[in-house]
Design a protein that fits this description.
45% of the residues lie in helices and 20% in strands. It is of the alpha/beta class. Strands 1-5-4-2-3 form a 5-stranded parallel sheet.
């Protein structure tokens, strides 16, 4: 009996945490502010990537990732929306020259690349910043 209650509460706590992330990012998007949420090792399986996909579909903006493996992961996760594709960009020096009103950043982008390339090419950047 207690195990069933525990599993039920764990499932709902995950859903509440993911929704909290969604509305936190939505708040910063609506206010037009740049925001980077600090992500630690203990922040696993809280719906970070799923939240970025939801916001990318809603605001039709790209997701910037650090490597090709993240692109494949997000595309696998996005199989629920086959009609709407999300633009996913790998962060490199050759990104210079592109301009976006809003961009979402996944964790794993090097800090120097983030501040020298990504932030200058976007009016507004929302995402995750890895803290080691």
């Amino acid at each position: 009996m207690y195990l069933k209650i525990s599993r039920f509460l764990e499932k709902w706590s995950f859903k509440f945490r993911q929704k909290a992330l969604y509305y936190e990012f939505k708040h910063y998007i609506k206010n037009g502010e740049n925001y980077f949420m600090k992500v630690y090792d203990r922040n696993r399986n809280i719906g970070k990537s799923f939240t970025l996909l939801q916001l990318a579909h809603k605001y039709k903006c790209p997701i910037i990732v650090g490597d090709r493996k993240s692109v494949e992961y997000l595309l696998r996760m996005d199989l629920d929306n086959p009609k709407k594709s999300v633009r996913i960009i790998v962060a490199r020096d050759n990104c210079r020259g592109k301009r976006f009103d809003l961009a979402l950043c996944e964790e794993g982008i090097p800090e120097d690349l983030l501040h020298e390339v990504i932030i200058p090419m976007c009016k507004q950047v929302i995402g995750y910043e890895r803290v080691y």
